[in-house]
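Good day; I would like, with your permission, to put a structural problem before you. What I wish to show you is a protein chain and, alongside it, a tokenised description of its three-dimensional fold. Thank you for your consideration; the sequence and its tokens are set out here:
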Amino acid sequence: MVDKDVLVINIPCIGEDLNNELNKKVDEYNKIIHKLCKDYSFKLVDFNFWQKSQLKINTNKYFISKKPFKMVLDSIFVRSPIISNIVSKKRNLVTTIDGVHLNDHSARKLAELIKEKISSK
């Protein structure tokens, strides 16, 4: 890794319920990722921290549909940022369109955080 900068993005929340079991596991893995970044001087984009700051007041339990047809429709219709934002708002979600995939606002924030980290020394 000599003369190379390594940029690591930690695991985002899975579902917008911060207290669900998946997010507890994500927290465990992110602690390990944080330690490895510190130990090896990798740059860490802590997207999970930002996402949690947005979700603190959200109690929405919506999570990806278990109905295959609805999942297919989601994958077709939410490709446009405009539509994905409408779907996200309709479902009362803050950072995602379905509990997993980022909405336009979150995708832009992730890009901004990456740009800031790349620009920093």
The beta strands are 7-9, 43-45. Helices lie at 21-40, 47-55, 68-77, 81-90, 104-119.
